[in-house]
Amino acid sequence: MKLLSLLTAATLSVSAAKAQAAPTVDTNVKALMRDKLTAAHGLLDALALEDYKKMEHFASMLQDLSKATTWSKPDSPDFQFYSKSFQNAAAYVVEQAKAHNLEGVTVGYVRVSLECVQCHKFVRSQASKH
Ligand code: HEC
Q1: Atom 8, ligand 1: which residue's CA is nearest?
Q2: In terms of residue numbers, what domain contains 109?
């Protein structure tokens, strides 16, 4: 028991140190992006099960996430463009899920996935310039 609490304390202090080293903005981006991944996975799940309620749920989650602006770069028109395209794709999925259009949601899922990849590609290309 004592060893366990020591281990817990050690783990906690390691994660505290890590959390301190990373800038706050980064942590937010990571949390947000992990939620996006969860939503995208959930959407694929719902598609496989043809569960429209679930599709709507995860599509709305993606839409909400696409609107979260804590980490957006207002000074970069390119980044804003990718953000907007992602928002449009997410809105399309919600629309198609509400209409119970299985093909539409599938296309929307592909569109959203493309937007994830496009924006990441852009972000990486910017990072390599510095
Ligand atoms: C408008 C831009 C944009 C869109 C769209 C976008 N991302 Fe990201 N994503 C980012 C940025 C910026 C980062 C942080 C990159 C870095 O580490 O510097 C990131 C990082 C990530 C990471 C890594 C997080 C970590 O723990 O390091 C994941 C996972 C991720 N995104 C998932 C997604 C998924 C899934 C989607 C689509 C449903 C998506 N993203 C759409 C900009 C975007």
Answers
A1: 33
A2: 23-127
- Token pair 């509400």 is at which residue? 98
Phi-psi region at 68: left, alpha or beta (left = phi > 0; alpha = psi -120 to 50): beta
- Between CA 99 and CA 91 the distance in angstroms is 12
Question: What is the total residue count of the chain?
Answer: 130
Question: Which residue owns the Cα nearest ligand 1 atom 21?
Answer: 33
Q: Is the CB of 83 inside a 6 Å radius of any atom of ligand 1?
A: yes
Provide the 8-state DSSP code for 15.
Answer: H
| Nearest Cα residue to atom 12 of ligand 1 | 123
Number of domains making up the chain: 1
CATH code of the domain covering residue 85: 1.20.120.10
pLDDT tens readout for residues 83-121: 999 999 999 999 999 999 999 999 999 999 999 999 999
**pLDDT band with cut points at 50, 70 and 90 for residue 39:** very high
pTM above 0.90, yes or no: no
